[in-house]
Amino acid sequence: MVEKILEEIKASLVTAGLHEASYAQNGYHLSLELQTGNITDGAKLFMANAFYLEDLFCVDYIDYLELVYFFNSYKELYRVKVTLKVDADKPVAPTISHIYTMARWYEREIHEFFGVYFDGHPNLTYLFLHDGIDHYPLRKKRVPVPDEDKKLLNSFKPREEDDCFFVNLGPQHPSTHGVLRVVVKMDGEYIISAEPVLGYLHRMHEKMAENRSYLQFLPNPARIDYPGALLLNLAHVATVEKLCSIEVPERAHYVRTITCELNRIASHLLWFGAFPADLGALTPFMYAFDDREQILDILEDVTGSRLTYCYFRFGGLYNDIDDTFIDKTKNFIKRMRERFSMYDKLITGNVIFVNRAEGTGIFKQDEAIKYGCTGPFIRSTGIPYDIRKAEPYAVYDQVDFDIPTGTIGDNMDRYRVRMAEMEMSLRIIEQAIAKLPTGPFKAEKVPKKLKPPKGDIYFAVESSRGEAGVYVVSDESDTPYRMRWRVPSFSNLMTFPSLAEGNLIADAIATLGSYDIVVPEIDR
Amino acid sequence: MMQNINNIIELVGWEAIKLIIGLIGVLVVVVVNALVLTWAERKVSGHMQRRIGPKEVGPYGLLQPIADTLKLIAKELLTPQNVEKPLYFLAPVIVFIPVMVSFVVIPFDAYLQVKDINVGILVILAFSSLSVLSILLAGWGSNNKYSLIGSVRSVAQNIAYEIPLLLALLSVVIMANSLSLKDIVESQKGLWNIFVQPIAFLVFFIAGVAETNRTPFDLPEAESELVAGFHTEYSGMRFALFFLAEYTNMFIICAITTTFFLGGYQGPILPGFVWFFGKTYLLVFVILWFRWTFPRVRFDQLLNLSWKLLIPVSLVNLIVTGGILKL
Amino acid sequence: MAITNPVEIIKGAISLVIGLGVTIKAFFSPVITTQYPRVELKISPRFRGHTKLVADKENPDRTPCIVCGMCEKNCPSGAIVKVVGEKKEGEKKKTLTSYILDFTTCSQCGICVEICPVDALAFSAEYNRAVFTREGCQFDLVKEFEKRNAR
């Protein structure tokens, strides 16, 4: 497959720089440079070869702006980085949103933060900053927003139409989705269109990263995805370690895997409590939180925090684990397995729940490429794509686990996939505890002021929602030049309008609950 | 003094005096029931979720309902700007009246019934249909999309579930040969109706839970979907009246189930009304149990359940009962 | 939806009864919550409360802090407002006189604790520091250290 795509690229696209990058060093396999003339042809080529758009963002190299596209495939790991240089004074680029639907939101985000205009984009307005901005936030120099663009801001008022009415789902919810607002156009009980409105929780983590050193940015990933804080902490730490070539001792890898899997179970339990609560069953929430308290107590004994962990450091961990942690974890695993049967009796077998969840919110496999969805969302449609198997990090290549998949891609399949994933996590923890080596928990010589060598790197982990990736551009100073967070909930949520259309509002709410989105992640 | 009282009794009539005392008693029962149920719901939900419910206000939280009532009375009666004033103000009042009337015919004991009307069950069914009207008024008068959706759902649900309710009761009525509640209780002297008519019991209970808008049929108040449904815009005492009406409705449905299927006030040793309240509150506990176990049924599944399952089953039950009685 | 299939109906009803069984079992099981203000919770030793100054091993009346300012420079949120010290007579290194921690922005990341060259900071086990004013959140760690020593 690799040769095939290389041949096709060489044959059909005229590229300036095509070179095979070192995966171990940069995290991607191939780097292409295209021009405004053939970027759409390039996108069509990747679409024809079943590559999905992993990420699309912009980096400001003061003389020019560089649009970076990452393509990857579900079947075989082959990450391609495509760059497109645009002029810094008049940044115009063609859109690829007619090929990859996900690009619609990515391009709106770039337009909002960098000021790049995309020709042919259906709706190029702001995505996050609703109150209006004077200058483009992520640019290195202060570039003011032209006046005709300012008129587009604050223009989100749905037009009044006959025979239908607009309802706001949120931003204040009785269910724990987070601060997400969905403007729903309804005709009686049926939804005609649903549009998420983002930006209620936007804190500009990517700008914060440019003003803080790598060490100082450590508390931030936990605030990006709070239920799965250790997983994103691992993404940040492992990226910088790979960039600076810091060797991490084996024991630290094992402890990282164990704590990350515990955090994954805690995150799935939170979802498990919230999903039936959307449907009306309020009791499983309490039972799930009982189990979650056990995990939080175990992790509190080790890391000191209960929700927003700042436990990993460059080169290892903040402090070591002890035997009480191992005993408590073993007891927890035994107890959790018994609780699964109780959850099956209460929820999974319940005929009312099954009738609500089965057959609703069906997402087809072939749509997945256009959106770039990852995580349990895509595994429920039958695609067995898991970063822990595709590009193993930490200790995942030394433990044995399966990837649970669904068949149809409805809400019930997503539920089943997540329950099976919790069982897989227990298996991983058991094996990792059995193989835990002794030794140091932190690398010896890690400089206090980290100055990584010049270059860029992309690194992805499997967070509890999907693929969470970090892209760092380093310019040899102790703060990153650009740090980009690719978050799974962003690409998953974009499928919601198409899934909600034409359905009852009760089904749409159940579907929204089954996504397991975390809004701080979407808004960053 | 005794001469004056005798004069009043002769003037007004013994029946009227009995009626007034009975109505006062009914009012007391209604209020006490609402207080008890508020406490019981929170305690039951707490223990089912492995936590304790209220515990600070009074021992075991027993004074919690009184604290809640005082809070609700003291709250500001907020009237949003564009409501339809007459409908908005009328709705909480109307929701309360039918339940009070239904209490008049329920036999708490052999001689503790306010008035034994000979078409007792018809009175109850007729007046319970009126409570739908109040929900409709509340939803429309609130001038709020969520309330409107909630009340429209509630009307469709109530209409759909009236019919199985009626058909299940008819099976018992034709066995007992009378519409009067007292006679129906008396007809269960040998064997309680639940053993003779189990299907009618199940159909009636499910339809009754749906009539009172309790989970799993609580779409009109679906919390996670529509904020609070038809009573979104009501606060303070008006909200309290809606809730009072819901709890009283629950009590009435359980009381009718007891009367029709569980033998009413019959039982050995203990006095009749103890048995009656015991059985009724057992069924109330079952309804509370349902709420904290099951998720909500979707709207079209709700209507399907009624029209495609409950009505045919209760019709067949009625025909079979009639057939067996004829033979 | 197979609502008219009698086998499905019976199976559905049985699943509902099984679910009811789970909740009634929980109804009679003991409570798992702790009634917090009446019952104190046990805090684990590694719990991250706000930071505190530790006592010097040789001289328990003072802290080992050398007023280098590493914690202040490396704090991601600027929670360490100002570390002030003065050079006392006859001593080689500076002595700490004022250390204000703005707890409204502290995220308990532990960078200051880890980066201190003399290990003068540690996490305390305090979680009950709620106040009514913003000024109450400016913790003076030197004063707290002295109060702890006086006891």
Task: Describe this protein's structure.
The complex is a heterotrimer of chains A (524), B (327) and C (151). Chain A is α+β, with helices and mostly antiparallel strands and 524 residues long. Chain A folds into 2 domains: 152 residues, NADH:ubiquinone oxidoreductase Nqo5 subunit (Beta Polymerase, domain 2, 2-Layer Sandwich); 271 residues, Cytochrome-c3 Hydrogenase, chain B (Orthogonal Bundle). Helices cover 41% and strands 17% of the residues of chain A. In chain A, the strands form 5 sheets. A 5-stranded mixed sheet of chain A has the order 1-2-5-4-3. A 3-stranded antiparallel sheet of chain A has the order 8-9-10. Chain A has a 3-stranded antiparallel sheet with strand order 13-14-15. In chain A, α9 runs antiparallel to α19 and α10 runs antiparallel to α11. The mean pLDDT of chain A is 86. In chain B, α2 packs across α12 and α7 runs antiparallel to α10. Chain B is built from 14 helices and no strands. Chain B is an all-alpha fold. Chain B is globular. Chain C has a 3-stranded antiparallel sheet with strand order 2-3-5. In chain C, strands 1-4 form a two-stranded antiparallel ribbon. Helices cover 28% and strands 16% of the residues of chain C. The radius of gyration of chain C is 27 Å and the shape is elongated.
Classify the secondary structure makeup of chain C into a structural class: alpha+beta
Largest sheet of chain C: 3 strands, antiparallel
Query: Taking all residues together, what is the mean pLDDT of chain C?
Result: 85
Q: Can you list the strand order of the major beta sheet of chain C? A: 2-3-5
Count of extended strands of chain C = 5
By CATH, the superfamily of the largest domain in chain A comes out as: Cytochrome-c3 Hydrogenase, chain B
Write down the CATH class of the largest domain in chain A: Mainly Alpha
Radius of gyration of chain A: 23 Å
Average pLDDT score of chain A: 86
Low-confidence parts of chain C lasting 5 or more residues at pLDDT below 50?
A: none
For the secondary structure, the number of strands of chain A is 15
Our estimate of the beta-strand percent of chain A is 15-25%
How does CATH name the architecture of the largest domain in chain A? Orthogonal Bundle
- The global form of chain C is elongated
| Shape annotation of chain A | globular
Give a quick account of the main beta sheet of chain A: strands, pairing sense, barrel closure. Answer: 5 strands, mixed
How many domains of chain A? 2
Quaternary structure:
heterotrimer
Order of helices and strands of chain C: HEHEEHEEH
**Percent helix among the residues of chain C?**
25-40%
User: Which range best describes the helical content of chain A: under 10%, 10-25%, 25-40%, 40-55%, 55-70% or over 70%?
Assistant: 40-55%
